[in-house]
Amino acid sequence: MTHRTPTPQPFVILAMPRTGTHYLEELLNEHPTVLSNGELLNEYDTNWFGKDRLLRTDRELLEQAYLRYPAQDKNVTHIGCKINEPQFHDRPAFFAELTRWPALKVILVTRNILESLRSFAQARQSGQWLKFSSDKDAARPPRVRLSIADCEAYFKAADDFHARVEHSFTSTNLLVVEYESLLHEPAACLGKVWDFLGAPALELSDRATLQRQETRPLDQTVQNFDALRLHFADGPYARFFDV
Is 182 left (phi over 0), alpha (psi -120 to 50) or beta? Predict the structure, then answer.
């Protein structure tokens, strides 16, 4: 079915990679009338049919996300998707098109960006991007070594992206969700999200299947942590090395 009345209220989840957006989306999708359809610009996302959708214009892609989405047997009142910062690189005009979508609500997920980069490096090294509650014997993620150049580039990309989002959407249409709050106080965090979206409050079921892959602190998982902390000690990124 492609015609729905009334049109659901649109939202988007924006973030750097490895910031807990899969977990947030899983919690959102517990709601009977809220649907978030995964990564719109990821050709491998199984929520969408076929890679050929990425051949469409930016506007056509957004129309598919918000007007012709796969409904998954829900009476949808709030419809969303998520986009990670690197996915805008291949479609440089997509961000501007997104800002023009009427009445769009934006959820910006943030995390200590060094943890985000550490997690990204671990996933690329191990090939394990998600951990589920059924993965009883999953191996512990590998310790990684991060270069100063990669850290500087990633930190700057995150700062620039967060600033761009905050400057492009009004404060009433933007909610910042912190990864640590989502992890440790999911019910309170989701309460703010429901209020922001205008969806009825929902008590969480505690049935989440996604699990945190890495529980060790940064100084135990980044092999050259002390050298990196020393390099960034007197600059704007020193805050990422507080453990």
Answer: alpha
Residue 1 included in any domain: no
Residue among 16, 22, 13, 39 at smallest CA distance from 156: 16
Is residue 228 packed enough to be buried (19+ CB in 10 Å), middle (13-18) or exposed (0-12)?
buried
pLDDT (tens digit, 9 = 90+) per residue, 134-161? 556 667 889 999 999 999 999 999 999 9
- Where in 168-237 does DSSP place strands (E)? 174-178, 210-211
Domain coverage including residue 106:
9-241
Q: How many Å separate Cα 184 from the centre of its chain?
A: 17
Total of domains in the chain: 1
Q: How many helices (H) and strands (E) does the chain have?
A: 9, 7
Do 70 and 49 meet the contact criterion of CB atoms below 8 Å apart?
yes
Residue 215: CATH number of its domain: 3.40.50.300
